[in-house]
TrEMBL record:
Belongs to the class IV-like SAM-binding methyltransferase superfamily. RNA methyltransferase TrmH family. It comes from Prochlorococcus marinus subsp. pastoris (strain CCMP1986 / NIES-2087 / MED4). Keywords: Cytoplasm, Methyltransferase, S-adenosyl-L-methionine, Transferase, tRNA processing. This is tRNA (cytidine/uridine-2'-O-)-methyltransferase TrmJ. It is an enzyme of class 2 (transferase). Pfam families: SpoU_methylase. GO terms for biological process: tRNA nucleoside ribose methylation.
Length: 247
């Protein structure tokens, strides 16, 4: 069966186990992942034990890209999915199953660059880091022992996403037109600065309030065009504020 275009990038945030990194590199090879990206590794990802575990996936370790921040690692991605494995599931964090995410992804004609964010082995991704994603997925496990090894979680998710890359005969496939993580991030940096300047936000509480706006925007499935309109409005307000001082 012919596959759709789906450039998939696995992004590991601060991994601290070389064996996990090696296992994930092997999985990248199993599922034809485009690139392995690592944010601030806390272990020697180029160690012999990592490469031994990787087997034929060693090239993903040799060629992996290392970043200092999540922003740098995902800002060329059209679509970002984050994984959520913490037990303390907040009421305002909406998670979907890997199966549902896979079906959603398969509804698009193509995705040029898809990033999958995996958090730290011990504490996953923070609530603020989850806001870089368009959708959040969670793997349901036993309540008696919910903890899942990082590489095992990667294997389940890559298996499900592999299904979405299979060509689907439906004629109603849609074109991906969501605002990218980079567009949303940069827009809200400007919005935050503007609202602090006008006195609506205080610097020490700005982040938590802006996070609520981001959640609303992500839920609304805002398009690239819509975010550009919003950004244009913010630019104009900032111009006015900067040029009306002293008048």
């Amino acid at each position: 069966m012919k596959k759709k275009r789906l450039n998939l990038n696995v992004v590991l945030v601060e991994p601290n186990g070389p064996l996990n990194v090696g296992s994930i590199a092997r999985l990248c090879s199993n599922f034809d992942v485009n690139e392995l990206r690592i944010v601030s590794p806390k272990c020697d990802i180029f160690s012999l034990e990592a490469k031994k575990m990787a087997l034929k996936g060693y090239r993903y370790i040799d060629n992996c890209k290392i970043f200092n921040s999540i922003e740098q690692a995902i800002f060329d991605c059209d679509l970002v999915i984050a994984t959520f494995g913490r037990i303390d599931l907040s009421n305002d964090i909406e998670c979907e199953s890997p199966e549902d995410i896979s079906k959603w992804i398969s509804s698009f004609v193509e995705i040029n660059n898809l990033g999958i964010l995996f958090g730290r082995e011990d504490r996953g991704l923070s609530n603020n880091e989850l806001l870089f994603a368009h959708k959040i997925l969670n793997i349901k496990t036993s309540q008696n022992y919910p903890s899942l090894n990082l590489s095992h979680a990667v294997s389940i998710i890559l298996y499900e996403l592999n299904k979405s890359s299979k060509n689907n005969d439906k004629k109603d496939l849609q074109v991906l037109d969501l605002a990218s993580s980079k567009q949303i991030y940069e827009s809200f940096k400007e919005i935050e600065e503007m609202l602090i300047k006008t006195g609506y936000l205080l610097e020490h509480t700005a982040n938590s309030k802006i996070s609520k706006f981001k959640k609303f925007l992500l839920k609304a499935k805002t398009s690239s065009h819509d975010i550009n309109v919003l950004r244009g409005i913010v630019h104009q307000i900032n111009w006015f504020l900067n040029n009306s001082k002293g008048k």
